[in-house]
Amino acid sequence: MTLDVDAVKAFVAVAELRSFTRAAEALGSTQGAISVKLKRLEDRVGQKLIERTPRLVRLSARGAVFLEPARELLAAHDRAVASLAAVRRHFRLGIATHVGGAEVPTLLARLNAHDPALTIEVRLDDTRELIAAFDRGELDAAIVRREDDRRDGEVLAPEHFGWYATPDFVYRAGEPLRLAASAPSCSIRDVITGTLDAVGIPWTQVFLGCGSFAVAEAVSAGLAAGAFSSRLVPPGTIEVSRKFGLPPLPASEIMLLSTLSDAQSRDALRTLAMAFREHRPSAAANGARPRFRSSQMVDNPV
Question: What distance in Å separates the CA atoms of residue 18 and residue 32, rounded to the nearest whole number?
Fold first, then answer.
């Protein structure tokens, strides 16, 4: 049996993005074309792979079994095509330290599998530093938190924040809040301290970390409270906004900036965006702790 690579790619995109709409956008196609390719694949294998209703998209039992082999088939195909390239290409990618979580290794592995001839140079830094580097032409792409009203990037996901501390952390109203935060140059720190200042809550920074991981370790140790994305909650901590009467933190967005225009690089960017969205739990959008995604997937209304 011979399978159509484009049809398999359409199936994997629908399965990973939970939506015919987003799959079409990721592949630079239309919903109609995606549906035709999926139907052609299902006719070829003689199995129903995706179950779809007006409000729901999910893998069938056979589709769930086929998904990983389908990914392996696409990776092998991409490696075969890439092996014909005579020149290795370079991809300079910046990822903000407060954005990248457990999905970062997956993002890089997916990019490498998609295009083995691509040399990936990764820079981890604060959003402000990465945006400045991007604007200077030092980066080809960057995954960062939206700063100000910048609109030249592709929105990858919303980002919600909350206040976290260990269950035994003590804070009394009127006293300075013992705060763990990143260096003064970090944009997240400005949001945190500015929010406290706006409502008249005094604070003292008892831990100055270099990056979000160091700050998370300090909060997990009970040294201070801190503000974190709902995706990156430090282990052993709880949300304490209501408990301590702390003000809500403004939501933001994670966006992808890029100057790449050639078809091969744009295809790599689509792979990057797809992998990032796939590994962002939907619970994070509601301010909840991350949970594993089930096989049931909700489609975007058309």
Answer: 16
